[in-house]
Design a protein that fits this description.
Strand content: under 5%
Structural class: mainly alpha
Order of helices and strands: HH
Helix content: 40-55%
Radius of gyration: 12 Å
Number of strands: 0
Number of domains: 1
Distance between the termini: 20 Å
Shape: elongated
Length: about 50
């Protein structure tokens, strides 16, 4: 599982689909509706703006 912010998803999907060894890899987007605030902050701090 890869975690990222909404604004990064499009570029990430493109990169994964172009570089994955599977012809049709499973790439899905699931919303994070709630979670531990420290964890959500970590995602924001760990992904590009």
């Amino acid at each position: 599982m890869i975690k990222t912010r909404e604004g990064c998803y499009g570029k990430l999907e493109k990169l994964l689909s172009e570089t994955h060894s599977y012809e049709v890899p499973q790439i899905v987007k699931l919303p994070i509706e709630t979670g531990l605030q420290g964890y959500l902050d970590w995602i924001d701090d760990s992904t590009p703006n």
